[in-house]
Amino acid sequence: MAAAIKITVIGARLAKPGTSFYFTDEKEECKKCKIRGACLNLESGRKYRVVSVKNQTLMNCALHDGGVLPIVVENAPTEAYIDSKKAIVGTKITYTPIKIEGEEAENDADAELFAPKGLLKGDKCLVQEVFEGIEKDGKAYKRVSLVLE
Asked: Does this model's pTM top 0.85?
């Protein structure tokens, strides 16, 4: 299945193929902008990757001092831990964050992979890659690369 792509704009300094970013909500400066429709067409809190720069037509932006350029983006892969039984390349899963609690959660370098930024409970994802495993509370998990469907 082909990745879902969208056309948007991004700060000229960030407009490089392969750059990943999290889209954030509209800012006060955006409310009167003439190109806000092209800029605000992504889902807030989601991770995207620049596929290509459409052209070098620089547009003014109140937030980006170097202006913005039109780009093509796709959903970027996000690493997460999932149940090891579901960790099969090419599998479509419904994502569920894993809750770890207590002192272990605060001191665990991998804690952010149990509920990574950009993924929400119920998201439909494709497992792109499978990496090493980990065990927590007697359960086996694998670190995977997931892409929103």
From this structure: yes
